[in-house]
Amino acid sequence: MKEIVLVRHGKSSWKYDVIDCERPLKQRGIDDSLLVISELCARGAVPSTIFSSPANRALSTCKIFMNFIEIPQNQIIVDKNLYDFEGRNVIDFIKRLPNSIDDVMIFGHNHAFTSISNIFGNTYIDNLPTSGLVKLRFDIDDWKDLKKGITEFIITPKDLKA
Question: What's the pTM value of the predicted model, to 2 decimals?
Fold first, then answer.
């Protein structure tokens, strides 16, 4: 059994004149990320291995999650292949994970995460919003055998504010 939690970065700011990779989070992105990680913890579903895109907004979201669950930031594994908007690099990354790892949380970007959720999950989502997450479960022992699995749950800030 393998599990993946895909977390789209929090709402980013366009206020600063920086390249895409350096865009910071807005306050709403910080607040929404705290809401979502609180709910994930309440469900007892925090994976043991954490990966992040190097983009500022994704890595900042990741650090908010890690601070909340008191996991040292030096346990975050940053990989440039996760700075991907299409999804192919993320899928290839997942298929290359060591089989000694059974559950992962990956912080990254759309449209990649919506696409991956729809390809490999059994619940269609139109769009994974900022700070939203999807937990997918697979009946496999080897990551290279990644195939259609189960969408265990989806957490979005909007649902938590309702």
Answer: 0.96
